[in-house]
Amino acid sequence: MMTHIYAFGSVCRGEVTPESDIDLLAVTQGSDLRFNPDLYSVYSYARLAEIWREGSPFAWHLSLESRLLYSPNHSDYLLELGTPSTYTSANRDCQKFFELFRCSANALRAMTNSPVFELSTVFLAVRNFATCYSLGTGTPDFSRHSALHLGANSLLISSDVFGVLERARLLCTRGVGEMISQDEAASVTLALGQIESWMRILLITVAIHEQFQ
After folding, report:
1. How confident is the model over 111-151, as pLDDT tens digits?
2. Which of 53, 123, 59, 102 is nearest to 203 (CA)?
3. pLDDT of 7-21, one tens digit each?
4. What is the CATH number of domain 90-211?
5. CATH 3.20.20.70 fits domain 3-81
6. Could you write out the DSSP letters of every residue in 64-82?
7. Which segments of the chain belong to CATH 3.30.460.10?
8. CA torsion angle 192 196 198 199 (round to 10)
């Protein structure tokens, strides 16, 4: 059965830390029970070709930051797909992650759910917002610190607050790390307004940029 296997993400960027996992992609012709979806991102050849045509962020991520690990015939399927289509949905995608941020920010302020879960979701929203913004404005950054790598448009919050958000994400996704204290959760809650203002400014920037693409 035809299969290609790739690594992508932090291991290909050279940013592996003790907290990193290894992102793996399996490209298959159809359902393939050899690949556990908890360990692999499993895509068919047809679906990958489709997201390449769509110019999706994941297509650009794989195009820019993947390494072939296995090929049945020495071919490189992703390389053969060429450059993905232009990404044209930055404004829409940033709006989506802004709304996700606002929902979790409101829950944190109201203390209506698990603080760790909401902090983790804030981190996810901030990271993906920044990644979509960076890709949409021509300087793609797919790292977990993408919000801090936007030059003059970087998110300016304390490293302690960002560290709490990052720890919360690890706790929710992998169940590892030091628990978040009430004081730490409160420190992030105080910074939510600053994060929201940063997002609102970049939403204006990315909307203008998209108009002139």
Report:
1. 877 999 999 999 999 999 999 999 999 999 999 999 999 99
2. 102
3. 998 777 776 666 667
4. 1.20.120
5. no
6. HSEEEEE-SSS--HHHHH-
7. 3-81
8. 140
